[in-house]
Design the sequence.
């Protein structure tokens, strides 16, 4: 019979048995080790599948990482372990220094629990660690070395001094633009990892440290998760994730793609901006990144990062380009001074053109009024031609002119008022012409006022 700490060996042993042998084995297990029997039986209740294997391995990892194994003070290869930094579902992390004292170097060494090494194989874990070692990015904790100690694969990494993302946000006030720049740096790190065919598969605030220079450092890549390009599940894939930040396909045990990390990044952006307004660009970026269906999300981290850059630079994001006046508003925000100057120039041009038009209309009106007045004078002359003009006084002529002006509908009202006002002004007597009463061939009379 297997020991209580060998659940994975029990599972593999069951796979080699036929149905009758399997049932006999389980019956014996239920009598001798009921606790392990209940764990195994719950996994085999429906059918033996890959999802059951995953749950069993996670259970084994949980049991292993909660054992009180203390390696503090031990020398592992070239490294001396000083104290424990953290413990998770995949292993334990210790702070370390170079034991030979040839270099002063602060390191972190992660020990992957031995059960996972036995199930997945050391070679597979080393291959994944080698992929991480190829990553060379300022926002990813660097992997330097690796080895095996007491059946556990360990990985030697850069030690990052800083706070986890959620702790940093709770203790440090940040402007929105600073949050966007920080998130952009996280996206750049993930974009670099994806270019080297490495998924993180466990992105959450606890795995993002903010160092003393306020730069992010990504930690704890899930070594059992691989980029899936053929649409097939990886037989060695373990479900190790945070329910709040893991994509729906990861929670359901499906294969993972870059869009799984996109979903987690969207959740982290939502942590940075808990209540974005509906019309804000951040709201629409979060909305697209965290879609339930992977095909509706950003195609990759690069597309997500580009939209973040557009927000930082006040450029229109892809999803809102069709919104009325949206692109114009972003242009004003991006170049306020040139936009205002251009608007002033355009407005001045419009006002100048409008003034010219109004002046032209006024000139046309004045020309029309002058023509109408000339017409009235001409009509007045012809109207009085048949009368005894010699007997008409100036006052009579003025009155006749006033009537003609008032009855002409083509002369504007304000022109009529000015003309009538001028006609009502008294004329000095010396300028008045006396009534002429003379016969034909009568010699002209001399003005007595002269």
Sequence:
């Amino acid at each position: 019979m297997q020991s209580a700490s060998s659940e994975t060996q029990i599972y593999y042993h069951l796979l080699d048995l036929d149905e009758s042998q399997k049932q006999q084995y389980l019956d014996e297990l239920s009598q001798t080790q009921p606790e392990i029997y209940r764990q195994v039986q719950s996994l085999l209740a429906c059918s033996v599948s890959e999802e059951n294997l995953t749950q069993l391995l996670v259970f084994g990892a949980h049991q292993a990482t909660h054992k009180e194994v203390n390696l503090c003070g031990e020398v592992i290869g070239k490294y001396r372990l000083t104290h424990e930094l953290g413990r998770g579902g995949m292993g334990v992390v210790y702070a370390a220094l170079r034991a030979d004292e040839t270099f002063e170097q602060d390191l972190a060494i992660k020990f992957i629990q031995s059960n996972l090494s036995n199930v997945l194989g050391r070679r597979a874990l080393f291959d994944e660690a080698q992929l991480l070692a190829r990553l060379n990015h300022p926002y990813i904790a660097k992997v330097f070395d690796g080895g095996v100690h007491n059946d556990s694969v360990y990985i030697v990494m850069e030690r990052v001094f800083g706070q986890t993302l959620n702790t940093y946000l709770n203790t440090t006030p940040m402007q929105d633009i600073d949050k966007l720049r920080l998130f952009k740096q996280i996206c750049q790190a993930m974009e670099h990892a994806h270019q080297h065919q490495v998924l993180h598969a466990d992105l959450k605030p606890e795995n993002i440290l903010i160092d003393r220079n306020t730069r992010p450092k990504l930690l704890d890549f899930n070594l059992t998760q691989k980029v899936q390009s053929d649409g097939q599940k990886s037989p060695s894939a373990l479900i190790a994730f945070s329910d709040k930040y893991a994509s729906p396909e990861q929670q359901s045990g499906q294969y993972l793609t870059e869009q799984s990390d996109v979903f987690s990044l969207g959740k982290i952006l939502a942590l940075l901006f808990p209540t974005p307004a509906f019309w804000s660009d951040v709201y629409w970026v979060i909305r697209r990144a965290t879609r339930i269906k992977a095909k509706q999300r950003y195609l990759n981290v690069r597309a997500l990062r580009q939209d973040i850059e557009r927000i930082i630079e006040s450029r229109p994001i892809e999803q809102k380009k069709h919104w009325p006046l949206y692109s114009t508003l972003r242009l004003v925000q991006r170049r306020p001074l040139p936009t205002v100057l251009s608007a002033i120039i355009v407005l001045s041009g419009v006002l100048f053109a409008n003034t010219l038009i109004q002046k032209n209309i006024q000139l046309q009106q004045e020309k029309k009024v002058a023509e109408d007045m000339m017409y009235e004078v001409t009509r007045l002359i012809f109207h009085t031609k048949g009368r005894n003009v010699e007997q008409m006084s100036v006052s009579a002529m003025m009155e006749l002119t006033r009537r003609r002006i008032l009855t002409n509908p083509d002369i504007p009202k304000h022109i009529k008022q000015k003309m009538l006002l001028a006609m009502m002004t008294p004329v000095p007597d010396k300028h008045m012409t006396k009534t002429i009463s003379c016969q034909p061939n009568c010699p002209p009379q001399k003005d007595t006022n002269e």
Summary: DSSP finds 16 helices and nine strands in the chain. Residues 336-384 form the longest helix (49 residues). The chain has a mean pLDDT of 77. The chain has four domains: 7-65, 75-158, 162-333, 340-426.
